Protein 1
Amino acid sequence: MALVEVKKLSKEYKRGVETVHVLRDLDAAIPEGDFLALMGPSGSGKSTLLNLIGGIDKPSSGTIDVGGQRIDNMPERKLTQWRAQHVGFVFQLYHLMPMLTAARNVELPLLLTGLSRSERKQRVAAALALVGLSDRAGHKPKELSGGQEQRVGIARAIVSDPSLLLCDEPTGDLDRKAGDEILDLLDGLNKEHNKTVVMVTHDPHAAARAKRTLYLNDGLLGTEPEA
Amino acid sequence: MKYLPLVLSSLSRKKLRTLFTLLSIFIAFLLFGYLAAIKAAFTSGVEVAGVDRLIMTDKITIINLLPYAYKNRILATEGVDAAVQSTWFGGYYQQPRNTFAQFPVVAEEYLEIYPEIVLPDEQRRAWLEDRGSAIIGRALATRFDWQVGDRVPILSPLWRNKDGKNIWEFDIAGIFDAGKEGFDTSGMLFHHEFFRQGRAFGEGLVGWYIIRVTDPDQSEDVARRLDGQFANSSNETRTVPEKAFMQGFLNQIGNIGAIFSAIIGVVVFTLLLITGNTVAQSVRERTSELAVMSILGFSRLRLLSLVFIESFFLAIVGGGLGLLVAQLLVESGGDPTNGFLPAFFIPGEALWAGVFLVLGVGLISGAFPASRALRMQHVDALRRAA
Amino acid sequence: MNFTWFSQVAAVTGVSLRELPSRWVSSAVAVFGIAGVVMVMVGILSMAAGFRAALSETSDPRVAMVLRASSTSELDSGFSREDTLVIAESELIARGEDGSLISSELYVVVDVARKSTGTSSNVPLRGVKPVAMDVRGNVRIAEGRMFSPGLNEIVVGSGARNLFAGLDVGSTVTWGTNTWTVVGIIEAGGGVPESEIWADLHSLQSAYRRGSSVQTVRARLASEDDFQSFKDSLTGDPRLNVSVIRERDFYADQSRLINGLITGVGYFVAVLMGLGAIFGAVNTMYTAVASRMREIATWRALGFKSSAVFISVMTEALTLGLIGGLVGALIAYVVFNGFQVATMNWTSFSQLTFAFAVTPGLIKSGVLYALLMGLIGGLLPGLRAARLPITVALREL
């Protein structure tokens, strides 16, 4: 049973008078426990697809099914709740709150739960330990290296224990060594914690760490770079 | 309050800006309170005027005197409960710029007609017993730092005494407070008998009468009846409710209230515009942060309330402190004229208006950024940040 | 400092000023804030200036006033006819076509309704002889004619005519048992007589049963410098018990309290509000600097001096201040200048009309204050821009 299933998915938007078709009648399935790399040239729609699966963008037509729930027609309020419970996001530019410490950043998603203060503290500590940053809990993003910032970003993505992890160019702004550490971390989360990981990247080296790679080209999905 | 760190962190993002914003809100409300007090100083006489009191003056002009003989006829008039005469003494202390109001009155009658005068019992007794003594208002006592027991010389250019001098001396028997906020405590009251026996001229004449009616609803009829009695005499009278009398005075000063209201309006509006812009700007700069939080699952309602908590925090802390400091400043005698104003306080309604304005500031300065947060598209917001 | 430095400043400043419109919202807020402060300040102070002008500045320094010793106002002064004759003996009094320029005057207060509210006000009614105009020097008939001696005719100050009801030429008014006809309107360059009503001295004396007594004597001296000798000769005269004061000083004393109150409130409000406006300007300039971060770094990387960058920020801030100041002063001028009001002159218990005066001096200080706000507002952001490390700034955004 696939965790994510999209059918006849289309996304278009207007740029001035012309209509741009980003995705066209796309079908795809991502099984539970998968570690999928999404590749493709700039503007091919890989980030759009990721955003659609994560419920932060709405398709023009087609259906998106995640964990047995249709999210394409979910009202905004429910979708927001759904995101908080089921999806973790990792961004290229980390998007940490600059004024909050690493621990406070990680704690953000937990504020939406009914957990008590001590429970939240425990979970944050566990997530930070998992990404190997226990000793940096009190630091602000400015005081961390890029790799460390991204690890805080990952800790924030997993702290509420979602089954699906969506990563948009997670190593795009990092050097090779730091990038490898992030990929190791994602790999571990996939294998040891059974997270389904979808990663958009344009770096073949990063894609090679995934279980499989799909290529988006001209709105269509394929298993080969040149469709 | 698990969101508190979140709000505090966004406020501390640009500490200098937050401080400036707080300070401008603070100043806006400090000025609001202070100007309201000045406005009240000019207008409170009308507010505190007794509904059961009438003022009778000469019909042609207030500076003409009335016969003392009128008093019994006033008292005999139907609907009149009590009456007391008073006169403009027009004196000053040491030099002309120290002018203040002094009135020779009949002590027992005056205190009864003006229950607003709050005087400790022993001081009241001392004043009633000593015909050469006077009582002074709290504001006046503060102005010249006078104490009970002081002997003060007052020079009245209007009234020469039998020694051929214009200097009159009074022992201060008591200091009265206002039993009602806004009641004038900038003046001095002394005994009419002392005045009558001491003055070199003007025998049989007094300045005006303060008349208490039995039924306030009938006061217009009583006034008409009184003026009718003295019509076609050499001293025709005009009797008006105390409120109208005060209002007339106020109108003579000019439309002070309106001028001050206009100033308050411009001041507050200008400062709040500046504030609103600052808050809006700081939220605009954080659009991508709001987008991230929304992606993490913060509902728009929750983001909205975060923005509002922030704007209300600024408004309440800055505005609340401003009103508080204004109140303290006014209470500790920040009267810019140093005692010339008959009363100096922030009226209750003005304080309430200030509180509502504080909340309004929070609401309005938060509304624009909040509506932005509400309309924000995740994808656009993130792209702008990238 | 040399030519290249100036061209650097010119280049950077030119760009920053050209970009001003693109940041128009926050620039407009800064301008608006400064304009608001200047408007309020100039507005309040123009009230004080008008009050001052009406009371003392229009009074000729050659006019001396004689009152009974220890009197503080015309109301409580008084002289017999004999006293006035003694005063008139002075050699120092100027001579006009019809004899000595000396005016004995009676001063009473009458009730007149205000046009705006309909409530009664105390307006001064002055009994004079026609010579009173020449004694003051600045009083002229603007409409109608002077009253005729011996008749119940009055002339009305233009300010009083505008603010109080029923005082136009041709109307009649009744005070007590006497009825008076308005035959003329007088002007006095904005001075006190414009608030008053003048009647013939003898008519007023008989109407108010004052016999031949008067309250004050005004004399026009041959020279301004004669005042002290005139004063000494009268106060030293054993037949008299008088005090002598220049008319303009007499009025200045009366205006001191109100003038001080208005001026005090005006500066208090202006200073506090100015702080608020400075915050607005600082904020705007920080935003301006932030949005120009990359541009500024580029200038610096090209070798432009940091002082040129600093000057460009300051110029922008001062431009905002100047615009705000001019706008505020202009609004104040349009709204307030000439706005006529009447207020109580506490010492004489009567109405004084005056017009708000937005003087060139006030406009100047308003604009200077606006520039000061701009200057302070630009200082910190300017320093930040000048100190910006080039590499950091290039990486920003």
Protein 2
Amino acid sequence: MEAIERFKEICADPKAYARRWKEKTGGKVIGTLCSYAPEELILAGGALAFRIVGGSGGISRADAHLQTYSCSLVRGALDDALNGEFDFLDGAIFPHTCDSIQRLSDIWRMNAQTGFHLDVVLPVKLNTTSARDYMTAVMRKAGTELESVLGKTITDDDLHKAIGIYNGIRSAMQRLYIIRQDRPGGIAGSDVHAIVRASMVMDRNDFLNRLTRLVDTLERQSEPESVDNKRIFLSGGVCNLPDVYGIIESAGGTVVGDDLCTGSRGLTGLVDTDGDPLDAIAGRYARRAICPAKHAGITSRGDDLVRMVRTTRAQGVIILFLKFCDPHAFDYPYLKSMLDAEGIPSLLVELEEQTASQGQFRTRCEAFMEML
Amino acid sequence: MISVGIDVGSISAKAAMMKDGELIGSKVMLTGYNARNAGERIFLDLLAGLDVQRDAVGRIVATGYGRNSVEVADKAVTEITCHAAGAHFQDPAVRCVIDIGGQDSKVIAMDTTGRVTDFAMNDKCAAGTGRFLEVMARALEVDLDAFGEMSLQADQPAAISSLCTVFAESEVISLIARGERRENIIAGIHESIGSRVIAMANRVGITEPVMMTGGVAKNIGVVRALEKKSGKSIRVSANAQVNGAIGAALIAAGIA
């Protein structure tokens, strides 16, 4: 399908896409380090939010600034920044989520040359009234700062338009996830991955149009031939290795859902369209699926995981996170025991962002499918 | 019916032949550089040694890291499923298998029917594996086969803190330089393997009876260290090194 090919092309080289976008539109590109970056505000300011999910290869320069037991996302991103690979960025936004991203922000500010530098200091607890008020204030501050660095006034009208586009994207993505859940094999896991990656870097209006057309086409398609694969739910953090999906599929699994950071997590929840737009954007952040660096109740991630496994009728869960990702590693024992208590088999795989240890991953996946 | 299991591991290739639910023979050799070749060679060796014709063999299942390159095999099954099947065949009571091979170690939880319910494998590092022991044997100038017995003569196992093979080797060299007894160093090496593997086993949960399989099970010192660290008694498979191949042969025969 033509739309998927376009998404795959962008996923394969997001930096080239951003450079071309900038050349063509003369617009500004802002690097974001996490799904908590206020993307609606960036769009309302007329800029392109460009999500950085790691580096492009080996790590050499970053290790002069970071300990080697930081995750490969943080080390890889810094390495690319130090190597000048983000020369197209006009600025970077660091939301305060995990410790590593927070400290990366400081090192980045002092060493990388990527234009202006904003920190968005979000609350850690999201389910309290004070956090809700604080979040709105954070959004207001981020909006003012963006206006200043972008040299543009962000009006309520701009915000409403941006909210409309993001709500459109999130609704279409939800439809895509339903197709994935109801018709396994209707769309390949690596295709969904390419779409999600494209959603993080592409001109959002263009993305929404292409995505909507694609989902319309997919919904009209007839049932794919039923395959005897196991239904797998992916849980965890950033997974930027398209091969992972191919390996799971060739081992006899089909991904029917996920809560990944490079998956459904940033695409959950809609922004209310009435009332103050900044307040509404803040409200979504308080409601959306959380990352383990945030808190919304003692067992909220586990409850969500069990619920999603049940909804997608998954037979097993593969938990993927980057080696040395503390927030995910701290959550893992309780998630595993909740899954065990529900009789849901799970497999833990720790990955490096760029170099997958393919043979071992393949063996684990095949053994897991044999077990199921 | 005659079935064969071929287990191409990182260091050695193993093959086992079953006939009507009985193990009738097995073979072990070094894998070498060419894993594809190793599967074929050990299969032919096994046939020759047992004087069985190629045509007499019904089905063949390959396992181990080289499983997908064994052309003579009808099917490839992972070593996790095969080790569980092999252990269950040899002792149906077994609920937990600790397998330490050339470059990986794994812990497998199974139910009373021999079905795998959970498992964990080591990461890409060689610490706590057969390769780790080979490196240490070279540093200590001791034949690896003597490791087990020598470690039982230790009076005070040396403390080896590092979990990394390369760093642990330099710790061992420091201990040698300090004049520490070989027996104590070897016992310390076994305890470091024991700690590492039991830490992984605790993630899966250890239900007794526990069986140890894989080439490293031939080392009694490692078995004792695993018992000490887990506080559980461990049975050693009578055919530890070929246990995966036996499991593969059972799966080939449709018994497991």
